[in-house]
Amino acid sequence: RNSRPTSCRIDIPSHQEKGNEGEGARMINTLYIMTQSGEVMVEKHYRSVLSKGVLDPFFAAHTKAMSPEEVEPTQTSGKFTLINIYRENIFIVAVVSNDVSPLFIFEFLHRCIDVFLEYFGKKLGEAVIRKYTVTVYQLLEEMLDNGYPLATEPNVLREMIRPPTWTAVFDSVTGSKNVKEKLPTGVSTNTQWRRAGVKYSSNEAFVDVHENVDCITDRNGSVIFNEIRGEINMRTKLSGMPDCNLTFINPRLLDDVSFHPCVRLADWTNSHCLSFIPPDGNFNLARYILGPENQMTIPIQIRPSIVFTDTGGKLDIEVSARSAGAKPIEDVVITISLPKQVNSVSCTPTVGTQSFDSVDRIVRWDIKKLPIDKPSQLRGSISIQPGAEKIDHQPTVRAQFKISGFVSSGVKVSRLEIVGEKYKPFKGVKYTTTAGRYEVRS
Question: What's the chain's Rg over C-alpha atoms?
């Protein structure tokens, strides 16, 4: 629930469409933005003003959860339903009072985070939301009209609300308005995601295929669970109203997939070609999931051996690179969460650096670039607190990494064709794989 559902296409309906949905359908009463500890930073009411008491079931679920990621995504509060996501170290909670599609609400909440990232930079958090609170309220005001989605495309919103640059700060001091009084022309057209009259002296289009690998293995390397969550993102700077056709070498891999509303579904169904008029700038074209039934390449193998005795223990972690298309595996981070009975750890890595957090009992092993010709090892001893109770469970080993120029699923772009305009743009494709939930049960 902290990543988008990808089993279907979810279009955010426009304000003009709400009359066909029936009174009260797809309505959001209130939005709350909170810190990861549950403190309310922003509250925006679209119908009637609600008391914060409506959030009591959410606070109860937050207190019960072991971490923010484990908070239940839905709660019931009287006649209201609370739907939340946790992403970028903040919670967004929607209060709804009618029979709505949860996937619709989740998609809209994720769209809010995407817009905030477009406006405020690559990282969000409590400090960023507090710094740009005024802009956040302005965005929420335009994205929902009386609880119904109105403008959710970043390039449309940028024409309505100026991003918080130094010029916007200057205008706020001089008294100039940051919000335009008229809607952009694209909002009332069939291509509301693209603004009209786009012109560039240099035209370009880039495709970025990014995959997160979720994998759980046992101590011998046997796969218990694996899944790939992929995204196809684009950055376009194209003049006029271009029509794009994106084809793949192996499109059959993209089975469980969702698309941006600009994609023509009929063309994908008939020929497995992504045909679309692109938004201007950065946008997510498609998301897909490849489950355990699909073949995938496990980029790294981790073999842990952690043994505890009454007075201490030994730790031996071996990490080796597997097939990654001969691409280097970089920014590797191995973490081992040890039991509370552990007093200290003394380890020596064959490559990289190692540290031990004595408060959270976490061993961290950082490897800038994993050697591909031989395994890397972390070996050492564990000290147990005197008189501590016996350790009866084995810790979990987690990994993070990044591989540029490689995707585990094998998805490959065949061709990006741009028609409808006379210019020849510069085009490029980039592939990246990162670790999602990558665990080894020792």
Answer: 25
Return the bridge partners of 227, or none: 214
Q: Cβ of 21: how many Cβ atoms within 10 Å? A: 13
Which three-class secondary structure state does DSSP give residue 178?
A: coil
CA distance 280 to 241: 10
Return the exposure string of 85-97: e unless at least 16 CB atoms fall within 10 Å of the residue's CB, then b: bbbbebbbbbbbb
Q: What are the structure tokens assigned to 133, written together? A: 């609170």
Tokens of 117: 């990232």
Instruction: Please give the structure tokens belonging to residue 132.
Output: 């740009």
Minimal CA–CA distance to 83: which of 64, 58, 66? 58
The predicted-structure confidence for 140-149, as pLDDT tens digits, reads as follows 998 998 888 8
Provide CB contacts within 8 A for 242, sequence distance 6+: 277, 278, 418, 419, 420, 421
Separation CA 282–CA 207 (nearest Å): 10
* pTM for this entry: 0.75
- DSSP for 303-353 reads EEEEEE-SSEEEEEEEEEE--STTPPEEEEEEEEE--TTEEEEEEEESSSE
Residue 384: predicted pLDDT: 86
State which amino acid sits at residue 57: P
What SS3 string covers 339-397? CCCEEEEEEEECCCEEEEECCCCEEEEEEEEECCCCCEEEEEEEEECCCCCCCCCCCEE
